[in-house]
Amino acid sequence: MTYEAVIGLEVHVQVKTRSKMFSRVAAGYGHPENTLTDPVVLALPGTLPVMNKEALDKVIKAGLLLGCEIAPECKWDRKNYFYPDSPKNYQISQYDQPLCRGGFVEIELPGPARNVMGEHKRISLTRIHLEEDVGKLNHAEAVSLVDFNRAGTPLMEIVSEPVIRSADEAFAYLTALKTIMVYGGISDCDMEKGQLRCDANISIRPAGATALGTKVELKNLNSFSFVRDGIALEVSRQVAVVQAGGTVVQETRDYDGQTGESKSLRTKEMAHDYRYFPDPDLMPVQVGEEWKSAVRAGCPELPFDKQRRFQKEYGVPYTITSVLVPDRELSDFFEEAARLCGRPQAAGNWIANDLLRELGAATLGLAQSKVRPAHVAGLVRLVEEGAILSNAAKEVFVDMFRTGDPPGAVVARIGLGAQTDLGELERWCREAVAANPKSAADFKAGKESAINAFKGPVMRAAKGRADPKRVDETLRRLLAQ
Amino acid sequence: MSEELCYSTISELSGRLGRGELSAVELMRAVIARTKEVDGRVGAFNSFDEGDALAQALASDGRRAKARAAGADGRGRHLEGIPVGIKDVISVAGQPLTASSRMLENFVSPYDATVIRKLKEAGATCWGRLNLDEFAMGSSTENSAFRATSNPWDLERVPGGSSGGSAAAVAAGEAVAALGSDTGGSIRQPAALCNVVGLKPTYGRVSRYGLIAFASSLDQIGAFARSVEDAALVLGAIAGHDCRDSTSVRKDVPDYVGGMAALAQSGRRWRLGIPKEYFGGGLDPEVGAAVQAAIDEYRGLGCEVREVSLPHTKYAIGTYYIIATAECSSNLARYDGVRYGSRSKDATDALDIYFKSRAEGFGPEVKRRIILGTYVLSSGYYDAYYLRAQKVRTLIRRDFLEAFTQVDAILTPTSPTPAFRKGEKSADPLAMYLSDIYTIGVNLAGLPGISIPCGFTRGGLPIGLQAIGQPFKETELLAIAGAYEGRTDWRTRRPRL
């Protein structure tokens, strides 16, 4: 018998805000322990929570981007449980009225080859709700210490329907979700900083069956590849259990990405009763149409929509768009360069290949790049005009990347530096004119563009190191004779 | 001389301070002396910081001198230099904050509650830490982990609770006024039992930021004072929206004293409702007679008195003990021995810290309520208890609002009995809970309520009259209370100590 996996993901995403969810203290990562605290975060006696509107804005934005229905009212509940990382011993969360319901994440499955687009699929969402993060326990030898810097950070929980069918789909889902969150400025989704955390609910059933099997919750999936590997492992574990005549036990399992193994944490019997009830310290907030419209106005184009547009509008191939689009700044960079030079494909190639290679080698981000869209556009134009040859252009690009000089200036500088022998330049020009009497005649007859026909051979002879302006002047002088 | 000062009203004292006949330091010294003289018997204070109080008074004198030099007459700053006692459940920066619990026995709070900030801005001296039933849970102040406060009128009896220390301090001349908190009657009931004025404002009128939460949807900070006008002055200082408390309401704070005076001048004929459900069994005959006499006095003032009905009254206690305990079970979860407060010395691991610290840190009534509240919120019971209680709460509020279509205020006894003997109800939580039978509905409905002295039993125990007002109509409520107060001299009587 063949089995299919039924997977639902619960993804926690920290919302990027200046201050915490219910207090004025700053939110952040990597600060000295217990410095991002105040009486509210530490739950000192008498303190009260006050909602951070920025967090609500961003979750509404996430909901709009994912096509969710936004609740007309934002209501807060308390989730009661004791744990030393939880200052109040209850978490302010949303129980029966999540801020967002429904919606979906469009994913792309791996294609048959790296340069071929894979199948697209929609993963339906159950809900998105907002809550506050807890602190962090650091276990020393004999004691455990709590750092409350993270406590109270706004945290979104995004729950998918159990419609994910494989580890690859789960990976693609997280990738797409992360891209959208980063696009929207909602979160940086850095898993190493705990800004995105994922738990998976996994069950199996005979292929084609409709009833759901017993689910196992898999925790501690600390990276995208752990999510994929952990799920793959759990699915095969369950299949093995069933094929050996056993039954899957409802439990929570812990995945260890280092060893690639999982072990049982707790079984169903120990499930919590969270005693949810509406938080009496926080009044429900009405989310009106006006509010939603204002947020909608700040919503970016979704990545896959942009990718389709790039392919259709600019004719840029998948191999390039799949590199440009996942990074919003890079895709904006591209659009600007394409607009300036009117040659989107060429601009795309420079950016997706040369720029990313140089940035990678220099371990720089796009924001630190001295090459700006105008540089790329200028270079594309120079090549287009035949002013420089493509292998010389590569060299010009590397120079621009290092110096930030405009391409023309770079060409002038290197061109002059390499080609000081004007006699040699004149000889190449003479040879080029002599080799192409038709174009010489055309030019003399008034066809201005015919001059370009000589530039290629001259540049080739000069190994690209001739100053285009001087080449132009020399050719004109010779042709005028 | 000293006792005279201590029993003066804010209005009298601020006049003398303003005319330079008295300094804030002199006043503070008198109050300190009085406290040292009587508090051994009364036990109103958990602690007081004499040096800090005198420093505040000195600063007040400095401000007054500076204002005078600048030509300001200091008018409108009635609380400048007035010692106001603080219930030990309201946070004052640098002072202990114990909630009369072992759990917070050594806790010093690093921040000012919003009401404290406002009192300080008004120039008042925040004075001492006043005893209460542990975490404000109780009606006799006997649940304090530290001391039982005595009723200044009969030291064998309780002062009521939970703000028993605040009521006793004002009654005994140990503070000119005091702040308390009222969740089910914790200001009004002790005020009635101690012959002082106790005002619980509308829910949302005063910020709760810095008040240790018992039941968040019911708690409200209010004032104890020697007169209705004094209560109005304190309310005027502490009321107002606070961006640190989402449940505080964005409404302007009126001039309560000016408004009261204007209403008194206008000669308005108040329509007063007497809820028939509040005069049934369990009401002490002497209390009933005194309240009837007060109602007659209102008739004599030309007020229109009519019977009203609050049909869901009988469900108030049950509803209250579901909602209040549910909220407290969650609110008190933070007292776990991890970040602050008492941690059991015997604890070996995290779970053990919780179990032992909470077992040792909380008293029996607090534990009883946490267990009750945990139960009513449990999966499978939530709908039957908490959800239903919220629905009944809505009905109770509707009863009041319906009555207010016919009347301006409702008059009732504050407490069914005068002060009872210490220990009398300790073994019977239900009997203790019934002490708040007339006050609880007001909290469930979020209304303002005031208790004013309305007589004494033959045995010399004070009796209180409760007036219940419409939401955010404290001015009218104060005017109605003031109208009766002006016709009687109950408030001027002093206990023999």
What does this structure look like?
The complex is a heterodimer of chains A (481) and B (497). With 481 residues, chain A is an alpha+beta fold. Chain A has helices spanning 53-65, 167-183, 224-243, 289-297, 303-314, 318-324, 328-341, 344-362, 373-384, 390-403, 407-418, 422-435, 437-444, 452-461, 468-480, and strands at 3-14, 69-70, 73-74, 77-80, 90-93, 100-101, 104-108, 120-132, 136-139, 144-147, 154-160, 196-206, 216-221, 251-256, 261-267, 277-278, 285-286. In chain A, the strands form four sheets. In chain A, strands 1, 2, 6, 7, 8, 11, 12, 13, 14 and 15 form a ten-stranded mixed β-sheet that branches. Chain A has a three-stranded antiparallel β-sheet with strand order 5-4-16, with no helix packed on it. In chain A, strands 3-17 form a two-stranded antiparallel ribbon. The longest helix of chain A has 20 residues, at 224-243. Chain A is elongated and about 95 Å long. With 497 residues, chain B is of the alpha/beta class. Chain B has a domain at 2-267: Amidase signature (AS) enzymes (Alpha-Beta Complex). In chain B, 40% of the residues lie in helices and 12% in strands. An eleven-stranded mixed β-sheet of chain B has the order 1-3-2-4-6-5-10-11-9-7-8, sandwiched between helices. In chain B, helix 3 runs antiparallel to helix 4, helix 6 runs parallel beside helix 7 and helix 11 (316-331) packs across helix 14 (383-403). The chains are: A alpha+beta (481), B alpha/beta (497). Chains A and B meet through loops of A and helix 11 and helix 12 of B.
Annotation keywords:
heterodimer, A: about 475 residues, alpha+beta, 2 domains, ten-stranded mixed β-sheet, three-stranded antiparallel β-sheet, 15 helices, about 40% helix, B: about 500 residues, alpha/beta, Amidase signature (AS) enzymes, eleven-stranded mixed β-sheet, 17 helices
